[in-house]
Design brief:
Thrombin, subunit H, tm1086 (SG structure) fold, globular
């Protein structure tokens, strides 16, 4: 597939492994009326990675692998915006210095970038270790599909995705198709180039009907009738392709987070069901 990847800027951005945070006692009431103190985002998550289920976890907005951040807001905005799914990440301090991983998502609100490392590397990492990312991907264009707006996507990952080209339309393999009415937390954002928005999972019948209980970290999904050129909004006939970046949630209006990769009218961009459309299958050898 022809792209402008040779012209893209490749630039270093960096963050430190961020300690999990908690407001007050951490207790709040979920959509079901029960109060909880759930495990949340941040830190180093040892036992959940891309390819694992993101549902039915006793936690809220849990992030797989390593979560990094800068305490300087401007620097963190750059880290979030310039880091793209699939970018190479390198440990630059601590016992795991020199180890290589890759970016798996960005998470708004807590303003984290999530990074995958092999399990043996996770054991050597510590809170505060520095991770440098070779950022590349914002500004990526598909030269044969100019109507498809691409964001947050490393060109090397694009080459591994299950894509088809038919009659001027780009078809993308996805594990699930999400109706517009299920999208919640994150609506109102003016861009999806630095964050995510959530699939609402509070209705059990809908979750069962759409097999959302099968969702995994790293799944590629399609959101129907949502345009994301300048932030998410309902637009009949549009489609957005994204990736699951954090776990389900007890919080009203929230659920598994989606970082957007592509958006266009369905005339130019269509999903098809591909059960193996997961970042782990594309990036882990």
């Amino acid at each position: 597939m022809k792209t402008n990847k040779e012209k893209l800027v490749i630039q270093s951005v960096c963050g430190s492994i961020h300690h999990p945070t908690m407001h007050g006692s951490g207790h709040w009431v979920g959509y079901d009326g029960y109060g909880r103190i759930p495990v949340g985002p941040g830190g180093i998550t040892y036992n959940y990675q891309i390819g694992d289920s993101c549902m039915c976890i006793p936690g809220d907005h849990v992030e797989p692998g390593v979560s990094i951040k800068n305490m300087n807001d401007k620097e963190n905005n750059a880290l979030q915006t310039l880091s793209c799914i699939g970018n190479q990440a390198k440990v630059t301090s601590g016992d795991a210095k020199g180890s290589i991983g890759f970016v798996t998502g960005t998470h708004g609100g807590v303003d984290h970038v999530m990074v995958y490392f092999d399990k043996e590397i996770l054991e050597m990492l510590c809170i505060g270790d520095h991770i440098q990312i070779k950022s590349c991907g914002q500004g990526l264009k598909l030269l044969d599909h100019p109507q498809v707006f691409v964001m947050n996507l490393d060109p090397s990952l694009l080459e591994h995705m299950h894509l088809k080209e038919q009659n001027g339309c780009l078809e993308v393999g996805v594990t699930h198709i999400i109706p517009a009415y299920l999208m919640g937390g994150g609506l109102g954002s003016t861009t999806m180039m630095s964050a995510d928005y959530d699939i609402m999972t509070q209705d059990k019948e809908t979750v069962a009907a759409l097999s959302l209980h099968d969702l995994r970290f790293g799944d590629i999904v399609a959101i129907m009738d949502h345009d994301n050129h300048n932030g998410p909004h309902f637009h009949k006939g549009s489609v957005s392709i994204g990736i699951i970046v954090h776990s389900d949630s007890y919080t009203s209006g929230h659920g598994p987070g989606v970082t957007v990769l592509m958006t266009a009218n369905q005339q130019y961009l269509k999903p098809y069901i591909e059960p193996e459309a997961n970042l782990a299958n594309y990036m882990i050898k």
